[in-house]
Amino acid sequence: MLERHRDAIQEPGERAGGGAPAAWRSPRTWLAVGTAVLSGSALMVSGASSAAAATGNNVNPQGILKYGVDLNDTFSNTFDPGASTDDCSYQVYSSLFDSLLSAGNTAVSPLLATSYTDTPSSITFHLRPGATFSNGDPVTAATVEASIDHIKTSPFRFSLTYIQSIQQVNPTTITFTLNKPVAGDVLLAMTYIDGMQLDPAALPTGSTVPASSGPFTLASYQQGSSILVKANPTYWGKSAYKLGGVDFVQVSPGPQEVSALETGAVDMLPIQPEDYAAVKALPNVGIATTKSEDYLVMQTRQSGAPFNDAKVRAAMEYAVDRPGINNAVFSGLGQPAYQPFPSWTAGYNKTVGTKYTYKPAKAKALLAAAGHPHGVSFTLVIPSGSATFSRTAQILQAELAPAGFKMSIQQVSPTDLFTDVYEHGQGDAVLTEELTNGPDLANNFEGEYTGIGFAGRELGDTNATLTPLIDQALASLSASVQGPLMQKAGAIAMATGTEVPLIFEPSVVAYNKSRVGGTVVAPIGECRSNLAGIYIKKG
Amino acid sequence: MGSSGGSLATFIGRRLLIMIPLLILISLAVFSLVLIIPGDPARTLAGGNRATPAAIAHIRALLHLNESFFAQYWHWLSGVLHGQLGYSLFKNQSVASGISQRLPITVSVAAGGMILSILIGIPAGIVAGLRPRSWTDRVVSVGSSLGVAIPDFWLAMLLVVVLSVNFHLLAPLGYVQFSTSPYQWFIHLIMPWLALGIGGAATIARQTRGSMIDTLSQDYIRTAEAKGLSRARVIGKHAGKNALSPVVTLAGIQFGYLLGGTFIIEQIFSLPGLGTYMLQAISLKDLPVIQGVVLVTALMFVLINLIVDVVYGLLNPKIRLG
User: Fold this and answer.
1) Which of A21, A120, A424, B271 counts the highest number of beta carbons within 10 A?
2) Is residue A501 a contact partner of residue A461, using CB atoms and an 8 Å limit?
3) From the candidates A6, A223, A435, which should be mutated to test the interface with B, based on the most B CB atoms within 10 A?
4) What band does A348 get if pLDDT is binned at 50, 70 and 90?
5) What does the mean pLDDT of chain A come to?
6) Are B118 and B244 a contacting pair, CB within 8 Å?
7) What are the pLDDT digits (tens) for A479-514?
8) A415, B285: Cβ pair inside 8 Å?
9) SS3 of A429-448
10) Interface predicted TM-score (ipTM) over 0.90
11) Residue of A nearest to B266 (CA)
């Protein structure tokens, strides 16, 4: 999909499970927790324990899960996260390296840090006692500082530039002092590549022979073909992992994904919406779906006509039949995005609710009021090579027509979007994705519509009324802090037509039921994998 | 013998000399990709939409992107002449290393397809050419027409559905290194070879058939038969050599075609060859990789043409004098 357009900080990690327990959502300081509550393993413990017990004897402890992934497109060809040029490498890295924290859809949870305390401009992490790298070296405050120093050399790790200084309080306590009140932003980054823990002693060979801090260690690598990782016997949370290893197998995108699953060439792979019907029809294949905050969105060029007129933008919000797109493109698995935050997050604004349902007559009237009684024409740019984008655009074209929007579609190579659309001003609107907010509700808006926001800078979509709300929200990850602020921000964004959110995209994985046991949980978004709690069956 | 060997050496030397300006032109054309490929890798490398103008400018300078075309060309060419094809912008490795890892896979796919093409195409063409308008000729004609008409990628998908999905005979994707398991290497390449080789076999069969029919109608063949030579000797010694001369040329062209065909076939069978490397580089605008792969592919074409010329010269000494 639109991977090269991804923003590093928009990528909270997820070790397992679709969300953390409610008790973890509000407190800003956790009590230390034991290994049993390893991130999403909490879900495994609560939701899948009976199933696991029932099938406990069926676990093949040496079983290797063959996980289909497009390594050519998504892996940076290095096992040094600091040298990664593709955020999708997270899918493999997260099996090898623990971050300080783990992210679910609505909250972060402990990983190598068992707890933290934060103010808007500082964060203190308490590290997991006894955690080691796969070579036996301990994870300490010194290694954390070295990891951060190493990874922040990457231009993709923007959030680390907010860390002004690091103080090692004691071997298991470390404090980040920030140069801006953006603790929420940095906390989110600590769930992702930015927060991955590397052994400084192993850095010289880290690109090929990494010392693992995660549940698996690298066993072999064949470029563009396979990455085999095996269970890390020294991992602090190994009880949550039942796989003997994972073989990330190259599967090119397209129909071969379905045949790979059907023939047993892979045991599990994430699937695209267009493949859902075909995969669902396969016998012996299971499908797991997780709700996601990733959403498909139309951004408009507000620096020029016709979208420099707020009434035209308001008309657009009513001219889109979101359930129609969800049913046709996402097989009904997604959720219509009537506002930027889904109903199960603290950012959801009940007053806005589903106000922006499909009302073509109202949209037409708004257009007429804006001085366009005969409608307006515009060009929507979409990234080429994606059936999801292509189908969505065609449906949009049909839906918008009754309201008076005459939309033409222009396909552009995903890597050319930066230059063609944003720099050279091609098209009047662009269909894109906002990739996971995770627990940081302010993250996407910060990256788009503030003074440093991308759409704001390049499309003229800066919304000054949003900026103070976002700035306040970035100071904390607490839902009680961010929620009310982002509810206001969401309402403003919709009222002013800052963007046209379309669908909260589902995260879907398919798996071979005869091979894979345990509770399969799809990750919260693209370029992730959930490996905890699943196993390969005996026989 | 000596003069024959000498004329062959002269012939090869002449062909090698012709290659020099050709290679210079190819290198210039390859480097010109800089001008025609849109996008801005400097921006992507500088952090995408978070990139600051200063960071973009810094990377642009590092990559010599802000220099003149000919200055950039010179940087690149001097590297190429020292065996350095540059460094991938996104894959954390040198282009030469990336190509050296992937080239054997592409060559093994193309060579296997070529061998299959020859093993099927030449016997089928000879059989058909020996008995024009017989039922065997008609079977070969219909089969070769189908083989030519069916696109490689479609045939590949058909093979996956039939041989992997329905009958579970072969792995639908993936690659196993020869050193890891020769048997698994072979098994994983059967379908790619078939997908590539059937079309090539059809083309070669048609050419061989036509060439054989033409040759068998020549006077010297009738003379040989009138002298009482056996049918097998006439075909094997006299007709075969002449009939196959144009097939050699075709096979050379066909090998180049198969090399190009592997780019799609690799994608379908998830083979980590030059094709997937190239397609990925194109989508990322990884210019050093694109230039490197195009250059190496072009050099292979040139080399194949040289080999074809030499073999053709061996088969037909008149060519050496041209």
Assistant:
1) B271
2) no
3) A223
4) very high
5) 87
6) no
7) 999 999 999 999 999 999 999 999 999 999 999 999
8) yes
9) EEEEEECCCCCCCCHHHHHH
10) no
11) A252
Q: Do A7 and B49 touch (CB under 8 A)?
A: yes
pLDDT of residue B50: 63
Consecutive H or E run containing B204 = helix B182-216
Chain A residues whose CB is inside 8 A of the B173 CB are 250-252, 256, 259-260, 265
CB contact under 8 A, A207 and B92: yes
Using N-to-C axis directions, what is the helix angle for B287-315 and B274-284, rounded to 10°? 140
Contact status of B322 with chain A (Cβ, < 8 Å): no
Q: ∠ CA A394-A396-A401 to the nearest 5 degrees? A: 105
CA–CA separation, B119 and A310 (whole Å): 69
Distance CA A503, CA B185 (A): 44
B51 touches chain A (CB under 8 A): yes
Pairing mode, if any, of strands A376-383 and A405-412?
Answer: parallel
**Of B50, B94, B155, which to mutate for an interface test with A (greatest number of A Cβ within 10 Å)?**
B50
Note the pLDDT tens digit of each residue in A255-314: 889 999 999 999 999 998 888 988 999 999 999 999 999 999 999 999 899 999 999 999
**Which of A64-68, B59-63, B138-142 shows the lowest per-residue confidence on average (mean pLDDT)?**
B59-63
Give the single-character DSSP code of B92. Answer: S
pLDDT tens by residue, A438-455: 789 998 898 888 877 778
- A382: number of Cβ within 10 Å: 27
CA distance A76 to chain B (A): 5
**Cβ-based neighbours of B71, under 8 Å, separated by 6 or more:** B64
Chain A residue numbers with beta carbons less than 8 Å from the beta carbon of B98 are 223
**What is d(CA A196, CA A182) in angstroms, rounded to the nearest whole number?**
19
**How many A×B Cβ pairs under 8 Å?**
138
DSSP H or E run through A535: strand A534-536
- Entry pTM: 0.85
Cβ contact, residue pair B268, A252, below 8 Å: yes
Instruction: For residue A427, give how far its alpha carbon lies from the nearest alpha carbon of chain B (Å).
Output: 16
Chain B segment 58-87 residues within 8 A of A by beta carbon are none
Query: Is B147 within 8 Å of B198 (Cβ atoms)?
Result: yes
